[in-house]
Amino acid sequence: MPTELSPLTSMGLMTKESPLATKKGSQPLVVGLPKEISNQERRIVLTPEAVGLLSNSGIQVVVESGSGLQAKFKDQDYSDAGAKISYSRSEVLAADVLLKIAPPTLEEIKEMSPGACLISALQLENQTAEFIHALNEKKITAVAFEYLEDKVGGMPVVRAMSEIAGSTVMLIASEYLSSVNEGKGLILGGVTGVPPTQVVIIGAGTVAEYAARTALGLGANIKVFDNHIYKLRRIKQVIGQQIYTSTIDNFTLSQALAEADVVIGALRAEKGKNKIVVTEEMVANMMHGSIIIDVGIDQGGCFETSRMTSHDEPVYRIHDVIHYCVPNIASRVARTASYSLSNIFTPIVLQMADLGGAEEMIFNYKWFLRGVYTYRGSLTHAVLARKFGLNHKELQLLLAARY
C-alpha cells in the first residue's frame, strides 16, 4: 500500500461500513477504472484508499490491470482495497459507471454498456461529431468533469488541476530556460547582482495565481494581464503583494512580451473556446530562446502560434521562441493529481450509489447536471451542437418530460 496518508483518511472518512449501495434497489453499482491509452495520460481517477471506501460501502469496483502503475499504484494495492482486478478491457468498459481521465475512443464506446454513465474529460477542441453520434447510439449519459460544479458554483476539477498546472508550469519553464535544453541559459528567478527573469502571465485565474506564487517565490518579476478587473484585483489580494497588473491591449501586452523570458497562457475559455490574444507578429518580436507555455491549448489556446504537443515531444520553436503546448500538464505529477481527483470523485460515486444511479444524480443535483452533454441518445450541450452543426435538446426539458 502507498505510504502517504490519504486526505480521505485524514478527514475521517474511512469509518465503519455503511449499508450496501445498490443500483436502483437491486444489484450493487459497478464502477469501472480502465487503463488510459491516449495522450500519455498517467493519472487515474480513484486511488486505492478511495476504492477501499467505495468497496466498504457495497460498490463493486473493477480495475483494469496496470491502470494505476504510472501513478505508482500497483494492482495489489487495489486488490487489497477490495477491487476486482480484470485483465479484460471489455469487462471494465461494460461497467455501470465508467471513470476515465481522457475521453473514450470510438472503439472503447462500442464496448460500453447501453445506458451506462461515462465520467471523463470532454476535451472539446479534440472532439468530432462521430464521437457524439457514437455516445448517442449507445444512449450513454456522458458527463464532462471539467464542467462539474460544486454547491457554491465553483468548478472543483478545473480548480484542482489548475492549482497543479499553475505550480508545475514554472518548473517546466525553468527546465527550458536552461542551457541544457538550448534555452536562454537563465535561472528562473535571480541571484545577487543579476537582474531577475521576467514572467508574463496572461489570465488571472487559478493557474495564474499558483504560477505567480511559484514565480515570486523563486525571485522572478511578474506581470499579469486579464480583461476582468475583478480577477486582477483578486489575484493581488490572494498573493498579498503589489504586483504589476493590466488589462489586455495590444500595445501594452506587446511591450511586456518583448521583454519577457517566460510567457504563460492561462486564459479561461469562454463559450467553449479560447480567444487568440497573442498574434504571430507579437511572438516574432519576443527575445530568442524565451519560452511560451500555453496551458489552455486543449481549448484552443491563446497564442496564434500554438499547436498541441505531447509529453513525448513537448516543445517546438517558431521565430526561435520555445513553445510548450501539452494539454495534460497535471499528468507530469500523476500521483499528486490522482489523489486530488480521487478526493473529488469518491463522494460523487457514493452519492450516485445512494440515489440509485446517474439519472437520479442529474435530477437531484444541478451541479452534476451542468456536466452532462449527452443523455439517453440526445446531445444536450449547446456549444457542442454549434461546433458540429448538430441539433441539441435542453436537458431540463428532457427531465421534465420524463418526470
Automatic annotation (TrEMBL):
EC number annotated for this UniProt entry: 1.4.1.1
Family membership: Belongs to the AlaDH/PNT family.
Entry annotated with the keyword Oxidoreductase: yes
InterPro entries assigned: Ala_DH, AlaDH/PNT_N, AlaDH/PNT_NAD(H)-bd, NAD(P)-bd_dom_sf
Keywords, sorted A to Z: Oxidoreductase
Keyword Oxidoreductase belongs to the record: yes
Residue ranges of every copy of the Alanine dehydrogenase/pyridine nucleotide transhydrogenase N-terminal domain listed in the record: 32-165
EC class of the enzyme, as a word: oxidoreductase
UniProt xrefs under SMART domains: AlaDh_PNT_C (SM01002), AlaDh_PNT_N (SM01003)
Protein name as it appears in the record: alanine dehydrogenase
Entry superkingdom: Bacteria
Domain Alanine dehydrogenase/pyridine nucleotide transhydrogenase NAD(H)-binding: 177-325
UniProt organism field: Algoriphagus confluentis
Positions in coiled-coil regions: none
